[in-house]
Amino acid sequence: MKNLYKIALSLTLSMIMASCAKHELRDFYVEKPASFSNQEIIDAYQPLKTYLKEETLSNFKFGVALSLSEYVSKGVKYRLANTNFNEIVLGYEMKHGAVVQADGKLDLINVKTLLATAKSAGISVYGHTLCWHANQNATYLNSIIAPTVIPGQGPALEENLIANSNFETGNTSNWGGWGNGSQRGISANGQGYGGTGYCLYMTNPSPVNPWEAQTAYDFSTAFQNESTYKLKFYVKGTVAGAASAAMQNPVNYSGDDFGSFDVTTDWQLVELEKKTTTGDRKRFLFSFGGYKGTIYIDNISLQRVNPNSGEIPKTPEEKKTIITGALRQFISGMVDTCKSYVKAWDVVNEPMDDGRPAELKTGLGKTLAADEFYWQDYMGKDYAVEAFKTAREHGNAGDKLFINDYNLEYSLDKCRGLIAYVEYIESKGARVDGIGTQMHIDINSDKDKIVQMFTMLAATGKLIKISELDIGLGNNTKTTNATAEQYEAQKVMYKYIIDKYFEIIPANQRYGITIWSPTDSPASSSWRAGEPIGLWTEGYTRKPAYVGVAEALKGK
Q1: Where are the alpha helices (DSSP H) in 273-382?
Q2: Residue ranges of the chain whose pLDDT lies below 50
Q3: pLDDT tens-digit profile of 134-184?
Q4: CB 3.0–4.6 Å: which of 40, 219, 295, 313 could bond 147 by disulfide?
Q5: Residue 263: which H helix or E strand, with range?
Q6: Among 234, 246, 259, residue whose Cα is nearest residue 285
Q7: What radius of gyration do the chain's Cα atoms show?
Q8: Tens digit of pLDDT for each residue in 112-123?
Q9: Which residues have C-beta within 8 Å of that of residue 281, sequence separation ≥ 6?
Q10: Is 51 helix (H, G, I), strand (E, B) or coil?
Q11: What is the DSSP letter of 520?
């Protein structure tokens, strides 16, 4: 039995050996997809700041812009910033609107948290920004230059009669309407004035007589007879057209018309007034039957003019004194709080006008957003002189103070205008240490103009900073439509910008470069929404643009 077992085992082994000889197993190999191999090459690069020489790194600021929450929460972007950069700048939270409260006092808790977090991580903070026309607490600033009310005689206007006048409660309380199959309601979030919050919408499917499509607000008590009412609201529509407003008797439909107003495709402020002729008006309404499309209305104010009011408007000189004091209060408070750690500031941001690049921006004649306030309209051309002097007075002796603007590579006249304004500021006794060029560009931006801009800036002898660099794919291309060829062109452009900066700007004038959007912009973002402008994807995967930046930094 044992022998039979041995024979069978021997035969089995022989058959297996023969089978292996006939069907030899091969090594299994599949070529990696090119995209996978390329990603391995990108991921093999070191963190970006490691490509700067030690002697360069000690003076050169390679920065990144983040929000406060992204950094102090110590999540992925906190680690990304600390690993790849040696300076951070906040997009919003150090600005006037984020710090100044309704009573004018400065709330600096968030700023102090940022400084402590950055200090523990060993990364410097660039102050952004001390004087700008946007992101301001404009409500407070306008309140301190409002007319003086004579005691005992009351304000010029009584309280707003429209409840939920900005529609932020998300309901249409007291609002109704009818006619021509028209519709009305509360918009989606983000469709309100300025692209934020909610508003009232009214849709009319076809043009008819104006009164055949109406939206009304009913009151429990009537308007006072022989009284003047002021109406104010913001409006825009899907097409250009017109509508009208009135106070009405809801029983016999007689009324007092405020009159018609134009509707454009951009938000605009409408201000009307009307005196009541009888005391039976209990309805306010919009008539829009002649308009085909959707009208959006926000921030409605309907106020009775107080016949016993007494107000004394402030003179231009009084306003200048008050606003100068408010600017000094903000700058001194910020710089005093941050001076132990912040050694560089954007003192004045985006001063030059786009249409008239040799002149300053102005808010005069414009419909201003809720957070807009133009210091120069009250302080004149010397507003920047005051800003730089105040920052210098309250800062450290070696602080670097910058003026900053956008489109300098697009409009060389604007670049010249900014340089001339710097010369003016210094002629008034203030010192400007550096000029920041934002460079929100794309892969098709004019390289010759970029070279000319750097050459002009270098000739000033000032420190030069690329302050907000991000590069899109052109033609508003979104991430969902981006191609490999476009990403390669983006890599080339990132490298070109940094190469030219180091080539044209002398070593002693190079303050640094800040990447404004380290990751691609989400579709929900208020900044270049949905554009793949970053060095990383939204999921923090390195892109070819990362290689372009790394290669440009090598040996610098």
Answers
A1: 316-338, 376-379
A2: 1-32
A3: 999 999 999 999 988 776 666 778 889 998 888 988 777 789 999 999 999
A4: 313
A5: strand 255-263
A6: 246
A7: 32
A8: 999 999 999 999
A9: 222, 223, 247, 248, 249, 255, 256
A10: helix
A11: P
